[in-house]
Amino acid sequence: MPTGVLPASSTARRPLADRIPVVSHLRHSVGWQRGMLVAGLVLTGLFVIVAALAPWIAPYGYAQRTTDAGVDFGTLQPPNARNLLGTTVSGFDVLSRTIWGAQTALLVILCAIVFSIFIGIFIGLVSGYFGGWVDRILVVIADAIYAFPSLLLAIVMAIVISRGQSTLWGGILAAAISITVVFVPQYFRIVRSEVVRVKAEPFVESARVIGVPTFRILLRHVLRNSTRSVPVVVTLNASEAVLTLAGLGFLGFGIEATAASEWGYDLSRSVSDVTSHIWWTAVPPGVAIVLVVLGITLVGESLNDLSDPRLRRRRRAAAVTGGEE
After folding, report:
1. For the purposes of burial, counting CB atoms within 10 Å of the CB of 146, is it exposed (0-12), middle (13-18) or buried (19 or more)?
2. Which residues contact 47 (CB under 8 A, 6 or more apart)?
3. Distance from C-alpha of 282 to C-alpha of 286, rounded to nearest angstrom
4. Is residue 260 helix, strand or coil?
């Protein structure tokens, strides 16, 4: 074989569909696993579409109390032609606030996940590769943060960060940063354990021997082989972010009603309504939280199962057995 020419099997690249995380998992899923993944993708896709098109789908603004003609909605009005899902105790349209709440939840999820990924991957990469006293200090800090109840830690961080501010982006960033503090230790643990394993591989040792700069080794060799589990963790954390945001809003540490629509806040204001047999203020935001969390969780659990090589071998063996029968 001529020098510098690699075998055809080593140069052949997998199809693009097999390299995209969710698409590749969908192609290789079968039976109930595929049904769960498809159902999760449908629910998650609807959530994203509603959040993106909220200004055009919602009949009114999230803090609007009158029609465009100036007619007052009234408070605690049952579903009617003007307000399809009724109105809240504050005179807001329930349907509009439920739709706008999807946009708030999506923005918080995106901000929290992006912050968590960058911070968690960076410190996990540094800690796992260099080790020593830096690794020990970061591990102790991550374990200390991880030991606290997630919602309690988010409440403390929300109080420290928001300081009573109720602006849209101020509340979103405060909630996102509060959730980020909870999520960073998870990404740190996963990336650090992978980095510790990858840095002992022969190709990393070879790169060190031939004098490849440390920064290039971290990016080209270590990082690329240490983040395979991150997409699965992202989907699982996204559902947890929705619940944490709803918990903050329900306890009064979230975003104010006049700054944005938030499902947890609306649920907290509807608690007293339920005892008076007023169901329409609590059911829509509650159902929205359940459907979004269910959809994202189905996607995350499906990706987690499909990423496990032991489960893949079992499914392959079951398929062969079924074919023989």
Report:
1. middle
2. 102, 105, 106, 291, 292, 295, 296
3. 6
4. coil
CB-CB contact of 43 with 292 (8 Å): yes
Other CB atoms within a 10 A radius of the CB of residue 221 amount to 19
pLDDT-derived band at 29 (thresholds 50, 70, 90) equals low
- Rg value, the chain, Cα: 24
Task: Read off the pLDDT band of 289 (50, 70, 90).
Answer: very high
Size (the chain), residues: 325
- Residue 132 is inside which H or E element, if any? helix 132-147
Spatial CB neighbours of 260, under 8 Å, sequence gap ≥ 6: 62, 100, 104, 168, 171, 172
The set of residues, in sequence order, having a beta carbon less than 8 Å from that of 99 and lying 6+ positions away, is 50, 54, 57, 58, 261
Our separate counts of H helices and E strands in the chain read 15, 0
CB 263 within 8 A of CB 51: no
Q: Which of 157, 171, 195 is nearest to 264 (CA)?
A: 171
Classified as helix, coil or strand, 2 is coil
C-alpha to C-alpha distance for 162 and 262, rounded to whole angstroms: 16
Compute the distance between CA of residue 113 and CA of residue 180 in angstroms, rounded to an integer. 7
Dump pLDDT digits (tens) for 73-90. Answer: 888 888 988 888 989 888
Residue in this structure with the two tokens 């840095």, named with its chain if needed:
199
Count of C-beta atoms within a 10 Å radius of residue 36:
17
State the Cα–Cα distance between residues 190 and 304, nearest whole angstrom. 14
